[in-house]
Amino acid sequence: xxASKVIPRERLPVLQQIYDTLCLYLGFYDDEKHLxxxxxxxxxxxxxxxxxxxxxxxxxxxxxxxxxxELFRWCRSANTFVSPKYTSSTAPNKxxxxxxxxxxxxxxxxxxxxxxxxxxxxxxxxxxxDDPELxxxxxxxxxxxxxxxxxxxxxxxxxxxxxxxxxxxGFMAMLTGRL
Length: 179
Fold this sequence. Notes:
Layout: H1 12-26, H2 33-40, H3 46-57, H4 68-78, H5 84-87, H6 99-116, H7 135-158, H8 164-176
């Protein structure tokens, strides 16, 4: 989110509901919710969302939501966790990229950076076929949920027409199905 823009007051209650749901999904409760904001603004997420914002949100003619399960399947089939266009710290040419490409790069870079730097997520690899504890799924879904929240926050600030109540209901349904 750009520092010079502010979330319109009438949109704050809906964003708060979404934020509270995100906190719960991430395992942070009432007295710990401030830690989620610190995480969102920290080195393990902020630079990757900045790239997503710059390369997708600020240039797309029409913004799309990315379905978590679709993204998970796509990342798996496209081997995004070993592909340099998603893992490299150097931004690739993104001409012709879809929402799946942009979202995959955010998730892959966030998780890989965390794995390599003692971050919030510690599994260390994306290997859903060899993961009896389902840590791969959990970490992937949590980072996707963060992306979805940050996009909602950006949209609340920057979109003239914003359907917050639909977004809040959809976000709650998506996340409670994964709790």
